[in-house]
Design a protein that fits this description.
By secondary structure, this protein is α/β, with parallel strands linked by helices. It has two domains: about 250 residues, Aspartate Aminotransferase, domain 2, CATH 3.40.640; about 130 residues, Aspartate Aminotransferase, domain 1 (Alpha-Beta Complex), CATH 3.90.1150. Helix content is about 40%, strand content about 15%. The protein is built from 13 helices and twelve strands. The chain has a seven-stranded mixed sheet, with helices on both faces. Helix 8 links the parallel strand 5 and strand 6. Helix 1 packs antiparallel against helix 3 and helix 3 runs parallel beside helix 10. The structure holds pyridoxal-5'-phosphate. The site of pyridoxal-5'-phosphate has 16 residues, from helix 4 and helix 5.
Amino acid sequence: MKRTWSKRTAAVHGGARRSQYGELSEALFLTQGFDYPSAGAAEARFIEAGPDEFIYARYGNPTVAMFEDRLAAIEGAEAAFAAASGMAAVNGALMASVKSGERVVAARALFGSCLYILEEILPRFGVEVAFVDGTDLDQWRAAVTPGTRAVFFETVSNPTLEVIDTAAVAEIAHAAGATVIVDNVFATPVFSRAVEQGADLVVYSTTKHVDGQGRCLGGAILGPRDVVRGPVETYMKHTGGAISPFNAWVMLKGLETLDLRVRAQAASARAIAEALAGDGHLARVIYPGLPGHPQHALFPEGGTVLSVELAGGKDAAFAMLDRLDIWKISNNLGDAKSIATHPATTTHQRLSDARKAELGIGPGLVRLSVGLEDPDDLIADLKSALTGL
Ligand SMILES: *Cc1c(COP(=O)(O)O)cnc(C)c1O
């Protein structure tokens, strides 16, 4: 009999479907369509498809289903719908949850594209959106008025690594009857406790740690089966946000090594944060895994990303970036390769200066996504880039 698996076992075996060949490594079903045994079988499947019956890859595909079921098993969610990208997942989770005349409350520290959906798209369709400082529970209490349909936040914000108290916000939201939708990228499925903390829909960009080697875009929406296989699937399958079976296969295989990679990257991130703390060129080292972080208790594992603020502002940040050797200047994160990003001029460029200041995205801020290289080499590279600034 199948017992409940731990995350690590689910990551290797969860969701496996075998063909008649009994292949050990999961098969890549690179097919859009499926051949029905009869016209009557086609009709029956369009009325209701069974768990191993597929219609069209925009709706589902065996490789995609393996990825969805494995990720759901790791996360401890009942079901998942895989999406073409993290943004397709964020958009799908929100659009499937709210309608005209309803209210959404969101934390203001958001990834630029998430902000675009909340600030520009939803209001176009008559959805009222209010923003709060996500770390201030009084602001949530005041903003989540009766009739609020959903709350949305990044559990750990990009790039300033504020950690939101998911359980406390969920309690406030649920008391008002609102659905809790979280973007959980920085927590990763490895360290996530989102479902037990009360998140109703958990969204990932699997482009990040799940692929983990910078190859494919992907995303997922996880939650209760009746919601994911209900309004979420209906919205996603008719609006075309499906993941490609090839990308789903890359992600599925990525899940097998996710735990090892994320734990190694987080251990290196901690070592780097400790090595940089107190460096005179840096005004701040932000890492939730350090005891001095204001929300350390909410995310002691810390994750794989830290941010540093150069005392010398943009010039110093650019000079440091340009002197790095191993660290690549790019904007992905969760990758095996360590990546340094200047958010103010790239990922968060479109925010106004006032908004950047409000979110703490100063000109000296550099986000460091820690990869799988030797942490001593990564520290030496950073120290040598800082020396002489
Ligand atoms: C990258 C990212 C996204 C968007 O994911 P894509 O796969 O690039 O579409 C959304 N939210 C957060 C927090 C991210 O880091």
